[in-house]
Amino acid sequence: MFFTSTNVPVVVKGEAADGRYVVTTPCGREATIDTAGGTKVFGVQVVIDPGHGGSVDTGAVQNGIIERDLNLKISGALQTDLWNRGISVMLTRTKNYGEVLAQRAALADAVGAKLMVSIHHNSSGARPPSSSSPGSEVFVQANPESQRLGKLLYDKVTTALAANYSLSWYRSVDAGVLRVTEPGGDESYGMIKRPKTPTALVELGWISNPAEATVYKQDQYVAVAVDALGDAIEAFLGGGSSGTGLKSRTFTAGLAPGTSQCTDPALE
Ligand SMILES: [Zn+2]
């Protein structure tokens, strides 16, 4: 794993004859890059994945919020928070560019991370029911470590949001900690299916809910969310909690944008 001189994380496939690295780009292409000014990375404990990125895969755009940007803002602040706790951490995406799911998963596996958290915010064209408690959703893998992580994330995040904000939240049937599988039994979501690293995907809340969107634009929200996510990750690394309260349902997810729709950032 290597951070290029332009601060883009890439997976190293090998060395070219001239000492340059052959790498897989964020969009999943092969490239040969200069090693000067870059940084080799290994042995990272925690990988944070800011969901979406680039001009095609914006994530949800509603109520004046672009999901890819909010996810990155929280991920960057969470990186700082974890460093301050003495936890080594890296992001799968460091700025606004496209990145395929396979590459995000490969980055976490390449550094041997103990866990990965994928940061998202939810939206819907329909109006999910209102609720007095946050409708955060955490999607997990079949493995017990992912489920332990998911339970900690859900508990810390929903407790913090409820303590800080009195809102009419959106809350769909997926609120809670869930495994979502296709009818054949495979994982539905690419960011859950692909990584060997224990991974949980967090939908913190609904930007399609005007009341929540007002909150999500505030710096204080970023601080509240980051503190809760950091507490959950620190508790996970300390061996805390067990993955109880898991729900499951079957669902066939749509495909995320692939390499052909993805524009790579400058690598040098
Ligand atoms: Zn998303």
Structure description:
The longest helix has 21 residues, at 144-164. It contains 6 helices and 16 strands. It has helices at residues 67-84, 101-110, 144-164, 190-193, 210-216, 219-237, and strands at residues 2-3, 9-15, 21-24, 30-33, 39-40, 46-50, 61-62, 65-66, 89-91, 115-122, 130-131, 137-140, 169-170, 176-181, 199-206, 246-250. The two termini are 16 Å apart. Strand 7 (61-62) and strand 8 (65-66) form a beta hairpin. Helix 1 (67-84) packs across helix 6 (219-237) and helix 3 (144-164) packs antiparallel against helix 6. The protein folds into 2 domains: 1-38; 42-254, Zn-dependent exopeptidases (Aminopeptidase), CATH 3.40.630. It is an alpha/beta fold. It has a 7-stranded mixed sheet, with helices on both faces. A 5-stranded antiparallel sheet has the order 4-3-2-1-5. The chain binds zinc ion. Residues 51-52, 59, 67, 120 line the site of zinc ion.
Secondary structure elements and pairings:
Elements lengths: L1 E2 L5 E7 L5 E4 L5 E4 L5 E2 L5 E5 L10 E2 L2 E2 H18 L4 E3 L9 H10 L4 E8 L7 E2 L5 E4 L3 H21 L4 E2 L5 E6 L8 H4 L5 E8 L3 H7 L2 H19 L8 E5 L18
Parallel strand pairs: 6-9, 6-10, 10-15, 12-14, 14-16
Antiparallel strand pairs: 1-2, 1-5, 2-3, 3-4, 7-8, 11-13, 12-15
Helix pairs in contact: 1-6, 3-6
The chain binds zinc ion.
